[in-house]
Amino acid sequence: MGLMIKYFEFLNEAHDIEPVDLEALEDHWAEQIREYFRNQPFTLTADPSRTISASLEELFEQARKRQKQNPGTQYLGAILQHLVGAKLSVILPQDKFQIHGASVADSPTDRSGDFVINTTILHCTTAPGEPLIQKCNANIRAGCLPIIITIYDRVKTALDLAADADLNGRIEVWDIQQFLSTNIIEHSLFDGTERNAKLAGIMERVYQ
Fold first, then answer.
1. Sign (positive or negative) of CA dihedral 169, 172, 177, 182
2. Which residues pair with 174 in a beta bridge?
3. Among the residues of the chain, which ranges form H helices?
4. What pLDDT, in 10s, does the model give residues 132-189?
5. What's the pLDDT tens digit per position in 89-112?
6. How far is the CA of 46 from the CAs of 53, 57, 183, in angstroms?
7. Is the pTM of this model over 0.70?
8. DSSP per residue, 133-150
């Protein structure tokens, strides 16, 4: 990415000397970047000797590293939301919940949450903040139960923000790894030999 930025700086300077079709070049290099990442997919290791939480943490760490390589990207947040959506699609009919596209955490929006299931609103984020708590408060005023699904080390942040807003005990806050691993273990009927198959089923939904 650093080399690409320098390359475009060079093109901008060259454009002052001789006209360059910057739009065509941008399209070309955008496709090269997409192709590069298509050839470097995220991987989830199915190791029966390790917990599902540990396997998911490896996946999330890949996303964190890629975000560092590409500042401004939101790989971890997108993976979190896709995993939640995939899990919901396994346990619920498609017409029983609404799915909204992944976006930057806590960005201003009119929608009530990332997933709407009856009177429950799910919010997926890796960085809980004041705007999210305001959304949750709006959910509560509308008679709905807000649930924040985040990464493990942001659970306390979300709970503290809820308490500061005098919403302690009115917002559920779940760790994504526990949310997924608990569901997978339950749906595999606590049979360790079935866990990977259930996890694989969720991952297949992510890519559909």
1. positive
2. 149
3. 2-15, 22-38, 52-69, 75-91, 130-141, 155-164, 176-187, 192-206
4. 999 999 999 999 999 999 999 999 999 999 999 999 999 999 999 999 988 888 888 8
5. 888 776 666 666 554 444 444 567
6. 11, 12, 16
7. yes
8. HHHHHHHHHTT-EEEEEE
